[in-house]
């Protein structure tokens, strides 16, 4: 984005120092911030705020707090854009069901909102924004080169959460986790299951 729009300034934030530092364009910088707390930006100072895939780290009660803070820092007429995943967009296929349910139960245990993707328009409206656009696109496990990336992403997600998911997936035989995951992904491909990426755009009233 910084290379495509050299006349704009881009600031990336994360709770951890996971930022790139090589060959950065002069119009991009990074800062460590916790988005569930007040942000180090002045009132009405930003034109655009973008986020994606916060459902795995932002507690349910903190979504409203975050959006209230976004409303403070975005200029009148400014835009906020969120993208999250709807895991329930299609009927769950046998073989993958235990991983979907396990992810749901783990997120509930940690106070996260498994269903936040479908709540984004309401969250924006409740925090003062006008919803100007909503898009939902299939993330298929089959048929295209992109679908291979979707399947790989799902594999990495479940491997990354393995420490927490094992007790929901296979508590009696933890060593079978990877085999069950492989079988679940195969079932998703064969039975044409998909997730859905939900993108919502809100505008701060002028």
From TrEMBL:
SUPFAM superfamilies given in the database record: S-adenosyl-L-methionine-dependent methyltransferases
Domain of life according to the entry: Eukaryota
Domain Methyltransferase: 2-78
Protein name, UniProt field: Methyltransferase domain-containing protein
């Amino acid at each position: 984005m910084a290379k495509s729009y050299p006349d704009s300034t881009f600031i990336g934030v994360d709770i951890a120092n996971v930022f790139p530092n090589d060959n950065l364009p002069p119009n991009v910088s990074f800062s460590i911030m916790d988005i569930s707390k007040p942000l180090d930006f002045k009132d009405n100072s930003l034109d655009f705020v973008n986020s994606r895939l916060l459902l795995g780290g932002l507690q349910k009660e903190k979504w409203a707090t975050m959006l209230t803070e976004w409303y403070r820092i975005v200029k009148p007429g400014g835009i906020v854009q969120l993208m999250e995943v709807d895991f329930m967009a299609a009927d769950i296929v046998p073989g993958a069901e235990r991983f979907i349910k396990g992810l749901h139960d783990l997120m509930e245990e940690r106070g996260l909102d498994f269903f936040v993707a479908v709540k984004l328009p309401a969250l924006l409206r409740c925090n003062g924004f006008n919803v100007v656009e909503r898009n939902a696109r299939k993330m298929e496990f089959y048929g295209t080169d992109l679908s291979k990336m979707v399947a790989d992403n799902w594999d990495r997600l479940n491997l990354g959460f393995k420490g927490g998911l094992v007790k929901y997936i296979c508590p009696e035989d933890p060593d079978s986790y990877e085999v069950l995951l492989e079988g679940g992904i195969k079932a998703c491909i064969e039975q044409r299951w998909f997730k859905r990426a939900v993108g919502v755009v809100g505008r701060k009233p002028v």
